[in-house]
Predict the 3D structure of the following.
Amino acid sequence: MTDEEFARLYDATRATLRRWVALLREQVGAGFPEKVTAFHGEMAVHGRFKLPCPVCGAPVQRIVYASNECNYCAVCQTQGRLLADRALSRLLKDDWPRTIDER
């Protein structure tokens, strides 16, 4: 990762965290959030498997490992490349689609 890429990632991470802190403070006010969950309706792709990405409209992809799930937009976040799901990609081997267009 170049210094420029690192700085861009750092700035984007801080901006995202600030936006979420402000949003949650606005929703909760002086109280404490009840029923905290990893999925929040305001998130762009997390918890939205198969639904359209709010930026580009491509279906949200997911990786499942044990009881964990990670959602991402293959178009916006990986330049159209599908990330390997350890179990399914091992089973399918060469038949595993490499890009969103191969699905």
Q: What stands out?
A: The beta strands are 61-65, 68-72.
